[in-house]
Amino acid sequence: MKHRRHLIAWTLGFAAALSATDAPASPAPMAAIPAGSYRPILVTGAKSIPVAAFRIDRAPVTNADFLRFVQAHREWSREQIAPIYAEPGYLGHWQSADVLGGAPRAAPDRPVVQVSWFAARAYCVANGKRLPTEAEWERVATARADKFFGVRDLEGVWEWVNDFNNAATAFANGSDAMRFCGATAANATDATDFIAFERVALRSSLRARFVLENLGFRCAS
Amino acid sequence: MNRWLFALSMPVTTAVLISSLAWRDCRTIRREEADRNERAAAAEAAKPIRGKLTFAPEVPPAPQRTREAHVVVDIEVKEVTLPIADETTYTFWTFGGRVPGQFIRVRQGDTVELHLKNAPGNRMPHNIDLHAVTGPGGGAPRTFTAPGHETEFTFQALRQGLYVYHCAAAPVGMHIANGMYGLILVEPPEGLPPVEREYYVMQGDFYTAGGYHAAGLQAFDVQKAIDEKPTYVLFNGAEGALTGKNALHANVGDRIRIFVGNGGPNMVSSFHVIGAIFDRVHREGGSTVESDVQTTLIPSGGAAIVEFTAKVPGEYAMVDHSIFRAFNKGAVGSIVVDGPQAPDVYAAQTIERPYTEGPTAFAEAPGEPKPKTKEEQIEAGAKVFATTCAACHQPSGRGLANAFPPLAGSDYLMADKERSIGIVLRGLKGPISVNGAAFDGIMPPQSHLSDDDLANALTFARNSWGNKGEEVTAEEIAAARAGKPLPKSNHRGATASLH
Amino acid sequence: MKVFLLLLLVSLLSACKGSNGDVATTSTHAATVAAPASPPIYPLALTLTDFDSASIGLDVFRGHPVVVSMFYGSCPAACPLIVSHIKEIEAALPGDVRADLRVLLVSFDPDRDTPTALHALADAHHVDVARWRFATGSDDTVRQLANVLGVDYRRGEDGIFSHNSVISVLDREGRVVARSDDPSAPLDPLIAAARSTR
Predict the structure, then answer these.
(1) For a pLDDT cut of 90, what percent of chain B falls above it?
(2) Which of A152-166, B216-230, B474-488, C31-45 tops mean pLDDT?
(3) How many beta-carbon pairs under 8 angstroms link A with B?
């Protein structure tokens, strides 16, 4: 009797320990980011944006991860994907629709690139997650999450965010302000943070179908 | 007969009536033909032509056209790591793969269809703002392009001039600082007058984390850019881009035209060619032409067309005359001119001779030299002696045995005044005996000294170290110099004029 | 006299000869070419809720040419402009083409643009509800639709959306055959596309 109680207690303890280490339903380990705020590089109003607590993948989605996904969801393979969802260069760095091949950028543990927003979103949804919002991504990037939360590779490839097509970034590309309803002058909060500028500029140049050699993603929840 | 005539007249009249309706006389037909030919020529001219682009310092040939055209221009943006100095590299963002971007050459009135391609391996989106464009953003909003994509827009080149183009994607300063600029020339309808040489030079300022000539790959330093403290100020994107084996060339007699741009991002250029005067400057690349200009200001984001004729062979340095940029930041290029000398314009021979303190040989006091008293002459002569004669004859007047004869107590000197005047003017060679000692050297002529100086020096020597003798006057020197017999000694009045 | 008349006839017939035929004038640039049609958007298979609270698919109007745009009901300026532009397009079409045309306006503000609110808007704008449909969907749904149509939008802290104004014309299979993102540009390309959609 005593042994059984010990066993139960031990098992419960072990299970608790396991869940505390974030053993996820999906393969990628995630970091828990507490609620906080971030300062966007271009502001139209408040200089500090609150961001609710969320979780984010510690690393970008890899070629190996994405290969598993397209094998399980054939409609997202290179051969079958609907043209509306991606440009012709989709997964072009792989040797074929089902084989990664030997190109350096196609290595299994490298971030997957040449994926469109639709494909990235579909991957995250299939894994019970979603794409991070721009606010979440920027919070992680500007809070030095690599140092504090163990989030990696924030300055490697560019990464999709769910709302990359938010009009506040329109000014980054010199669009006519007149063509945007509700547009107000956007001021830069830190003129020296050109890396943040670059992210904003890159996002504002994208369309959801686009695939880029340098653009991958990670998921959030 | 009448019946026949009547019968014939009907169809004839009908024929005349019908054909008069369709009548087109020669003039109308010829005019219609000319109209058709004109339309055909216009259609032919309206066929799109592919614009020829060149990399600096080359310039595309002038468009040999008498009418507007539809010109298609393809430009590819590439982010590339290239040398910026001998042991230093930098990741430039470029139009076409080099800094500055390719030179575009069109004609006023042309319709330009510009295709902007962003190479797939690039990390950044880019666009283009051409100062030759009339319209919002100069084309920038319409050409914002993600890596691996292409956009296009069309504009009409309304005004002639030399215009900068540059990337205007945010952060704009960084895109320009990384080298994203070039020039587009819109020729006047009649074209620029032909010249023998045309070159493309573009200045830019660069901001690196490391200092000047720090080795290795250097990163962009945004704080230095904001503070406007460049590490490098360069022509055509790299130190040495226009020097040494990369120097520009011309022959004597060539009319040289340089299309000079300034991409900035920050510095204004004081453009000057050392040794040349610009015959003509299209100030700021526009229609105002100035003549005879030494140094022209080229604003950041501006340009100028400078023209000059190579007249004298040699190497001519192009500089930003904010001169520390030329010597300490790299803002220097070269034009090497070959051909025959032009000694009237520029004497090639260097004349060099010793110079010591004091008035030069040909410096003449204003007005007539005033006669000095003997005391004044001795005093003045002492100075001349000290600076000129004492080197050999020694300040003591004792000379150097076997080398330079003494003057102190010298029988040779005091015996013959005329002879010593001749010696200082014409020199002396050959054996002489002074105070019993033999000398056989060379005394060089001192004819470069003025009459006054020679007179004073001799007067000093003849009245120093125990010597006592008559003074020598400037007139005596002058007469001897001219080869005339010496005048009688001038007896001065008791009152000599004072200087 | 006969000779004279004969001479007259001859001179008429041998009238001044120009060059034979017209010089072929090659057509240079075509008139503004409509952009090559995009892939059909209907595979997106989104589900929207319309102003009658009915659940509709994105392809609710498949088989008809469709004018589609995105907006939000509390929009102070641009969105009434979108509605008026679409009415202008309709007015420029011949009656039979107009009868065949459908209009789908999707709001990216599902919180405030409930079916009731959407219905009120449709009434306020006096649209022909037989052919016009206002609808909305979840945040995820409208974000996907916006991405397919090239609509950029962002909800500001004050509930005012920053967004561009995009009007697209779809053919019967849901391909975008014309698109304008410039509210001040002439509507002719959109009208022409609506008129000529097969």
Answers:
(1) 71
(2) B216-230
(3) 78
CA distance B169 to chain C (A): 18
Q: What average pLDDT score do residues A35-57 get?
A: 84
- Given a cut of 80, whether residue B42 has pLDDT beyond it is no
Taking an 8 Å cut-off on Cβ atoms, the answer to whether B147 and A204 are in contact is: no
Chains touching C, CB cut-off 8 Å, 3+ pairs:
A, B
The predicted pLDDT at position A80 comes to 94
Angle at B220 between CA B216 and CA B226, to 5 degrees: 145
**pLDDT band at A64; cut points 50, 70, 90:** very high
The partner residue sitting opposite A205, judged by closest CB among B121, B144, B220, is B144
Second-level CATH architecture of C2-196: 3-Layer(aba) Sandwich (3.40)
Q: Which chains share 3+ C-beta pairs under 8 angstroms with B? A: A, C
Residue B465: burial class (beta carbons within 10 Å; 0-12, 13-18, 19+): middle
Residue of chain B whose Cα is closest to the Cα of C19: B33
Nearest-by-Cβ selection for B12 from C9, C23, C25: C9
CA-CA-CA-CA torsion for B387, B390, B395, B398, nearest 10 degrees?
A: -170
Residue B244, amino acid: G
Q: Are the CB atoms for A153 and A111 separated by under 8 Å?
A: yes
CB of A16 less than 8 A from some CB of C = no
Judging contacts by C-beta atoms under 8 Å, the chain C residues touching residue B26 are: 16
Q: Which two tokens stand for residue B340?
A: 């025959």
CA dist A74 and B7 (Å) reads 92
Q: Is C63 on the interface with A (CB under 8 A)?
A: no
The better pLDDT of the pair A192, C37 is held by A192
Enumerate residues 6+ apart whose C-beta is below 8 A from B331. B203, B233, B234, B235, B269, B319, B320, B322, B325
Domains in chain C: boundaries: 2-196
C113: Cβ–Cβ under 8 A, 6 or more apart, which residues?
C72, C73, C107, C121, C134, C136
The residues that bridge with C134 in the sheet, in sequence order, are C105
Residue A36 or residue C183, greater confidence = A36
Contact C165 A179 (CB under 8 A): yes
Q: Which residues of chain A have a CB within 8 Å of the CB of C79?
A: 181
Apex CA A131: angle with CA A128 and CA A136, to 5°?
120
The pTM (predicted TM-score) of the whole model is 0.71
Query: Is residue A177 within 8 angstroms of chain C, CB to CB?
Result: no
Choose among C79, C147, C183: nearest Cβ to A165. C147
Using a CB-CB cut-off of 8 Å, the residues of chain B touching A207 are 146
Q: How confident is the model at residue B497 (pLDDT cuts 50, 70, 90)?
A: very low
CA distance B243 to chain A (A): 34
The residue assigned the tokens 């100095």 is B85
- pLDDT higher than threshold 50 for residue A161: yes
Interatomic CA distance for residues C174 and B366, integer angstroms? 100
Q: In terms of Cα–Cα distance, which of B122, B73, B61 is closest to B101?
A: B73
pLDDT at residue C3, as a whole number:
56
Most confident of A143-152, B187-196, B479-488: B187-196
Answer positive or negative: Cα dihedral of B146, B147, B150, B151. positive
Task: Give the C-alpha separation, A144 to A66, whole Å.
Answer: 27
Report yes or no: A104 at the B interface, CB cutoff 8 Å.
Answer: no
Question: Closest to B5 (Cβ–Cβ): which among C1, C8, C24?
Answer: C1
